Amino acid sequence: MKPHLIAALLVCLVSVWGSYDTELNAAEQQQTPNYIGRTLQESQQVATLAGVSLKVGTFYISADSWREDLRPNIVYLQSPQSGESAGDFDTVVWLFRKADADRAVVTMPNLIGMTQKNAEARLKSLRLPLVTNPSPASTEGEKSEMSSQDMVVRDQYPRPDQKIYEGTSVTLRSTE
């Protein structure tokens, strides 16, 4: 084979490999779209187009604090924030709902440091649904063989000691 053909072939291979590597890096660092102010249906469509797994949580607000400009099917909170990478965790959006007068108020427990299994049991006892189960990730960014039940809670929303209504959705971020 002639040297100029070999050089041309190498240039083609390097450019194809480089574009493949760039696509992988873009997928790994995909930024979270902005869902704030969108309807739930619009948010789900945006997530589908972006290839993002979207979970929906509910945050109850007291009748005293409820504002008439809050609409029940509009996204007002999201995690992670727009433009941030979700990494191995689900993207969660919250919808606000007006709490009925008979809905019980509970104090959000501090789950940080607990095993995922114990945190889930505590939430269940308080009637606080877990809206997302975190994906385990190792320090190398690869999926772990460790059960999510053995993982330890590192972050939570709502925050510890916050007064919330029964039925408010909770997210946990857990790691090995």
Rg from alpha-carbon coordinates: 22 Å
Global structural class? alpha/beta
Major sheet characteristics: 3 strands, mixed
Tally of separate helices: 3
Order of strands, main sheet, comes to 1-3-2
- Compute the average pLDDT: 79
The H/E string reads HHEEEEHEEEE
Description:
With 176 residues, the chain is α/β, with parallel strands linked by helices. Helices cover 27% and strands 24% of the residues. The protein is built from 3 helices and 8 strands. Strands 1-3-2 form a 3-stranded mixed beta sheet. It has a 3-stranded mixed beta sheet with strand order 5-8-6. A two-stranded antiparallel sheet has the order 4-7. The longest helix is centred in the first third of the chain and has 26 residues, at 3-28. The model is unreliable at 3-27 and 136-145 (pLDDT under 50).
